[in-house]
Design goal:
Layout lengths: L22 H7 L2 H4 L3 H17 L5 H20 L11 H13 L1 H5 L6 H37 L4 E6 L2 E7 H26 L18 H7 L15 H6 L2 H28 L6 E2 L18 H25 L13 H23 L2 E2 L1 H10 L4 H10 L4 H18 L8 H7 L7 H5 L1 H7 L8 H15 L2
Antiparallel strand pairs: 1-2, 3-4
The structure holds arginine (ARG).
Arginine (ARG) binds next to helix 7.
Length: 472
């Protein structure tokens, strides 16, 4: 019999196997190249498991101490880069366990009592993702804060609001920024919600059916911080489900995809606004690149890439859904394929949020260009119609009269506010010289003084609400 079944893959699993694995199959089935990043979670899970095994009298406290010591050394080896990862040992779990046995002997071999890699990997992935969700939540808060500051500085700055990418009505640039704050706030809510279903313990499910050892699963859950808001342990309640579903990872990827879609829409606007045709903003040079052939070019590479990377994160969501859809219960090796898409989604979202936190603070707003564009688009036409309604006209008639006014203004190449009173009165006799107050962009903005509206006083009230909520 081989001295240690974990020493090499050629002697792997059991005496049942009569030939070694080919090099290609070894490479094809191994996951250690990417799942090694779960090492902290793997060690935390093993420590909690060993502590419980000892408390339940399943292993001796001497063995537990040896395991503790061995795992602490392995952690420092991995941290320092001294740990020798072996492809033959397939994955992070077997690599760590083999080294543990090398370091502490039989105690190391006892660690896997009442456990399977099936419940181990599901636990590791949940622990790892939980901490990443927390990091992402913090970044979403930071991004919202940056947008709120920009909104506050530009509560009075006039931007042409668009529908169908045609100038519609003037809005406060700050109001427009706060629209993104709402989106990222919901993204943070979704992350917090997904966290609750991620932070549940599979360990104790073993391979799929549970185990015959008297495990205290709730103790392990508490040790690992897998508890609800009231401190009650959160344990997966069905062993088959515990090892086989990855819906928590899929749910995270869905929330990550939505967050990226929001970033992507903002990116698209930044790209448009920075173009010569709009000229509404400038981005700090450090977020742009030049062209190798056209010396005049400054390209908004960072928002363009963020828009592109959104496709990648949405693709990972599709990949994970497809990975899961045909799998019979319980664990299948297919699930090893859950890691790279999940890891890449986390990395992409975190990097994108980090870079946006920085970039938003560096946006240079050009209010004159925005105002000029709002004027060119007859953005106060609705205000003129509302004015006529207040003078007693039915809205449909007012709408018609204003259409004629806009036609006239276009023909004369002027803004509505530049038409002489006499011209306006020819359109409708009810028009008086108080009309010019509503035809200004500022007047239009101030008039939309409804909860959630674009009036600068409303924008400032929202800024205050967000600051209180975000602790800014
Ligand atoms: N590396 C495997 C994974 O990522 C660990 C679980 C292996 N379990 C098994 N029964 N082969 O899913």
């Amino acid at each position: 019999m081989a001295s240690n079944p974990l020493d090499t893959k050629s002697t792997a699993w059991s005496a049942l196997f009569s030939e070694p694995m080919s090099e290609l199959v070894q490479r094809y089935t191994a996951s250690v190249g990417f799942d090694r990043r779960l090492w902290r979670a793997d060690i935390a899970g093993s420590r909690a498991h060993a502590e419980m095994l000892a408390a339940q009298g399943i292993i001796s406290s001497d063995d537990q101490r040896a395991i503790e010591r061995g795992l602490a050394q392995i952690a420092s080896e991995i941290e320092s880069g001294a740990f020798a990862w072996k492809l033959e040992l397939e994955d992070v779990h077997l690599n760590i366990e083999a080294r543990l046995t090398q370091l502490v002997g039989d105690a190391g071999k006892r660690l896997h009592t009442g456990r399977s890699r099936n419940d181990q990997v599901a636990t590791d992935l949940r622990l790892w993702l939980r901490d990443e969700i927390d990091a992402i939540g913090a970044l979403l808060v930071e991004l919202q804060r940056a947008l709120v500051e920009l909104a506050d500085a530009h509560a009075d700055t006039i931007l042409p609001g668009f529908t169908h990418l045609q100038v519609a009505q003037p809005v406060s640039f700050g109001h427009h920024m706060l629209a993104y704050v709402e989106m990222f706030a919901r993204d943070a809510e979704r992350m917090a919600d997904a966290r609750q279903r991620t932070n549940r313990l599979p360990l104790g499910a073993a391979a799929l059916a549970g185990t015959s050892y008297p495990l205290d699963r709730e103790r392990v859950a508490r040790t690992l911080g897998m508890v609800d808001a009231d401190g009650a342990p959160c344990v997966c309640q069905n062993s088959i489900d515990a090892v086989s579903d990855r819906d928590f990872a899929i749910e995270f990827c869905a929330a990550a995809s939505l967050a990226m879609v929001h970033v992507s829409r903002l990116s698209e606007e930044l790209v448009l606004w920075m173009s010569q045709s709009f000229g509404f903003i400038e981005l700090a040079d450090r977020f742009c690149t030049g062209s190798s052939i056209m010396p005049q070019k400054k390209n908004p590479d960072v928002p363009e890439l963020a828009r592109g990377k959104t496709g990648r994160v949405v693709g990972h969501l599709m990949g994970l859904l497809t990975l899961m859809k045909g799998q019979p219960l319980a664990y299948n090796k297919d699930n090893q394929e859950d890691k790279e898409p999940l890891f890449d989604s986390v990395d992409t979202l975190k990097d994108t949020l980090r870079i946006f936190c920085e970039m938003v603070g560096g946006i240079v707003v050009k209010p004159e260009a925005m105002e000029r564009a709002a004027r060119r688009g007859y953005a106060t036409a609705t205000d003129l119609a509302d004015y006529l309604v207040k003078k007693g006209l039915p809205f449909r008639d007012a709408h018609e009269a204003v259409a004629h006014a806009v036609k006239q203004a276009i023909a004369e190449g002027r803004d509505l506010s530049e038409l002489p009173l006499a011209t306006l009165q020819r359109l409708h006799p009810a028009i008086g010289d108080d009309v010019f107050a509503v035809l200004t962009l500022g007047g239009s903005l101030a008039a939309r003084d409804v909860l959630g509206g674009t009036a600068p006083v409303q924008v400032r009230a929202q800024v205050a609400r967000h600051r209180a909520r975000l602790g800014a």
